[in-house]
Amino acid sequence: MSRGRLITIEGIDGAGKTTLGAGLLAALRGRGLAVDLLREPGGVAAAERIRTLVKDPALRIGARAEALLYAAARAQLAEEALAPALADGRWVVLDRFVDSSLAYQGAGRGLGIDAVRAINDFGTGGLQPDRTLLLAIDPALGRARQDDRGEAPDRLELEEDGFFATIASAYLQIAAAEPRRVRTIDAGRPPDTVLDAALDALADLLPPGRRPGR
């Protein structure tokens, strides 16, 4: 049995990752693939508990502790869900992965991308996505979309605009450094258009006969 594929979706808050994830799940299953949709932090019980902790706006969490909490949740997800699914030949569509920590904690919190990458390489055992879909959007539009949801912001969403501008810039730098893995998609367009672009970006990974337009 061939190994499955790990497809990660990245971008700042409000970029449309959740919407794209649901669209990809349906589209890939429609092509006959076995696909799981997971999120970070979370996806398994222990990681979901860490998610509740790290997003709580009532808590003060230092930058290093924040980075370690995300890495711990990711380590549990990788061991408990990602590695078994991929070994079983399943595809996994994952809302956020290591690149989020590189952008948010490495750049946004100023901890350094190399330092944050090191703890995550340890946590995941070096697991790498087969393809990363970066949803690029103007930070102001992302913030406006968050406000339109009508939900109370979590601890990170309460940060100032400059924090998200730094993160958006870091994501673009990551994409420029790894163009074969990371495909940048204009997330300011309608969801159906974004989904079509994402499927195009995955076309070379799909088995023959299951590619868009066939």
End-to-end span in angstroms? 24 Å
**Spatial arrangement of strands, main beta sheet:** 2-3-1-4-5
The run of helices and strands is EHEHHEHHEHHEH
Beta-strand percentage range: 5-15%
Overall mean pLDDT stands at 94
Global Rg: 17 Å
Low-confidence runs of at least 5 consecutive residues: none
Portion of residues within helices? 40-55%
Shape label: globular
Largest sheet: 5 strands, parallel
Polypeptide structure, described:
- This protein has a five-stranded parallel sheet with strand order 2-3-1-4-5, with helices on both faces.
- The chain has helices at 17-30, 45-55, 63-87, 98-108, 113-124, 139-148, 161-177, 191-202; strands spanning 6-10, 35-39, 91-95, 131-136, 182-186.
- The radius of gyration is 17 Å and the shape is globular.
- Helices cover 52% and strands 12% of the residues.
- The chain starts with 5 loop residues before the first strand and ends in a 12-residue tail after the last helix.
- The relative contact order is 0.20.
- Helix 1 (17-30) crosses helix 8 (191-202), helix 3 runs parallel beside helix 5 (113-124) and helix 4 (98-108) crosses helix 7 (161-177).
- The protein is built from eight helices and five strands, in the order βαβααβααβααβα.
- The longest helix is centred in the middle third of the chain and has 25 residues, at 63-87.
- With 214 residues, the protein is of the alpha/beta class.
- The mean pLDDT is 94.
